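TODO from last week: model Ferredoxin.
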Amino acid sequence: MALLITKDCVCCDACREECPDEAIYEHSPIYVIDADLCSECVNDFSEPACIVACPYECIIPDPDNIESIEELKLKNRRNKEL
């Protein structure tokens, strides 16, 4: 599943700098994660880099974008090819 940034986001930029998929962008008033790009850092890190980097703990699993580990791995490989 992709991740979701909650309304508690203060646009500190910590998550965006850490995202290997470049899936995070500013969408006033908060940042947004592009579900088509987010691979939850599968194959890159043991846990999503944005969650680790976020000092406000405002990044959560997106219940509207549920994906299996295999789907996330495929998305990660596709992102690397771009």
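Done. The mean pLDDT is 93.
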